Amino acid sequence: MPRMKHDSWLDDDGGGVNQVGLDLVMLMLFGFVAIVVLLLPFINPVAKKAQDDIIPPGNIMVEVTWPNEINADVDTWCHAPGDVPVGYSNKGGIVFNLLRDDLGSYMDPAPANMEQCYSRGIMPGEYTVNLHLFSNASGIFPVPVTVIISVKKSSNKELMRVAPPFSVLLYRTGEEITVVRFSLDAEGNGIPGSMHSLFKPLRSAGVVQ
Hints:
The protein is α+β, with helices and mostly antiparallel strands. The chain has helices spanning about 20-50, 205, and strands at about 60-65, 70-80, 95-100, 115-120, 125-135, 145-150, 160, 165-170, 175-185. Strands 1, 3, 4, 6, 7 and 8 form a 6-stranded antiparallel beta sheet that branches. A hairpin with an 8-residue loop joins strand 6 and strand 7 (about 160). The termini are far apart.
């Protein structure tokens, strides 16, 4: 009795692969590999270019962070030469701007506790960075805070840190401390021997009545 034919890549004897079907699969596979090979040179350079195109929003950057699990409102105060102190109640001056005022978890859906302050340009003279513990709903003390200060002298220069990250502790609500005071020349270079942490009140001078 003759066997019935059926649609398959197998031949009538069931012992081999239909050559047309095999050629079609191989052509599709080679085509896919060719496309991937052609695209590979363009993937990483695009990502790298995107990273290189990121321009910091200021010349002097102050980044303040504290543990996410501590529901506290830590205020950053920055003071540039010849300018007014900049903080939560006075977010913009001639030089500095407070980009982010973190209130802890109050009206803040972001989990990260972070404040950022940036300068427009570099003025020669002394800079001061203070922290003030406005409130601490968590009741956890002391509050550990990390402060990173970086300087970008110009658009074609690399971002450089003024010093290693500063790690400080805030022990009570209402406490204000000076994290660091340092001086820069007109080119943004640090002046040797100018860095110290002698307390200089900023909040009382910067609060807008």
